[in-house]
Specification:
This protein has about 300 residues and is mainly α. It has helices spanning about 1-25, 25-35, 40-45, 60-90, 95-125, 140-170, 175-200, 200-210, 215-255, 255-270, 275-305. About 30% of the residues are buried.
């Protein structure tokens, strides 16, 4: 009896030690994963501010909070458990799902590029908006923006979760769960905290520019107010480029030939890391734009057929 109890205590002690060792490995795995998903994080951060541009400034933080909350729920409740289940029962399905998400990013990125040039073309030709344009209320516009942002974030979050799982796939289940939860919470807070700072920067600038502030503070505040519209515009372009780059790179890594080609390209420029990154990102961006155009044509053909 006593021997059996001692053996049980030994087993419990061993289990606790293994669990502690696994948890000690979590910060390292979180840091490693965060580095791997940095491109997607940049994409998410650059894309989101445009969804609140043009809306009531008093609603900006509320809208960002709604998007962030849904993003975190998607990561914690749906995507992370789905990744764990797929990794256990059907690991072969993860890559095709990622590639479909990448194709969607390419398609949406192409749509944004196309709309930019279409708008410029209409302005140059002297064509204004039609008089029978659909009227939409601010509440409906806000709902549409939030839905669009959540849809795009869902794709990006799925890529983040899948890459996180791939990083810890060989670890014990406890480590997998802890790392995936930690990455989901950390990245969501970091991305949407920074997005909130970006969209409220002009309000911060206005506060700094008040007459009660020190002259240097007022000058800096006016500089922020003047700079932010240009910054948001540039950020929109960066977000679109990142969608094309990230989407195409995800697809490329799912195809052995293109994956090897990207690796060879990076290795050939290993002595110039910045140039290697730029060349790879540019190649992926152009490929993503081309793929997005093809998908757009297919979507239009399917719509006409049905």
């Amino acid at each position: 009896m006593a021997t059996g109890l001692l053996a049980l205590l030994d087993d419990v002690s061993a289990l606790v030690k293994v669990s502690a060792a696994s948890l000690d490995d979590v910060p390292t795995q979180v840091a490693k994963t965060t580095g791997k998903v940095s491109g997607i994080v940049i994409d998410d951060t650059a894309v989101t501010p445009k969804y609140v541009v043009g809306l009531n400034p008093s609603r900006e933080l509320s809208i960002i909070y709604r998007i962030a909350k849904k993003s975190l729920i998607n990561k914690l409740i749906f995507l992370s458990p789905a990744a764990l289940l797929l990794g256990f029962f059907a690991p072969w399905a993860i890559t095709p799902i990622l590639m479909m998400g990448g194709a969607y990013l390419c398609y949406e990125g192409y749509e944004k590029v196309h709309s930019m040039f279409s708008k410029h073309h209409d302005e140059d030709a002297g064509h204004g908006p039609s008089g029978d344009a659909e009227v939409i209320t601010p509440a409906e516009l806000e709902k549409t923006r939030v839905s669009s942002a959540v849809r795009t974030d869902l794709i990006l979050s799925a890529e983040i979760v899948a890459i996180t799982y791939a990083t810890v796939a060989e670890k014990v289940l406890l480590t997998q769960i802890a790392v995936m939860l930690a990455v989901a919470v950390f990245i969501t807070i970091a991305v949407y905290g920074f997005v909130g700072l970006i969209v409220k920067a002009d309000d911060i600038g206005l506060h700094m520019a008040k007459e009660t502030q020190h002259p240097q503070v007022r000058k800096f505040g006016r500089g922020i107010v003047t700079f932010m519209p240009h910054f948001l515009k540039i950020l929109g372009y960066v977000g679109t480029a990142a969608m094309l780059w990230v989407g195409a790179e995800i697809i490329a890594h799912g195809i052995p030939f293109t994956s090897h080609a990207l690796d060879d390209l990076q290795h050939s420029l290993a002595h110039l890391p910045a140039l290697a990154w730029f060349v790879k990102a540019t190649a992926c961006g152009l490929a993503g734009l081309a793929l997005g155009a093809v998908i757009d044509k297919l979507v239009k053909l399917i719509r006409k057929a049905f």
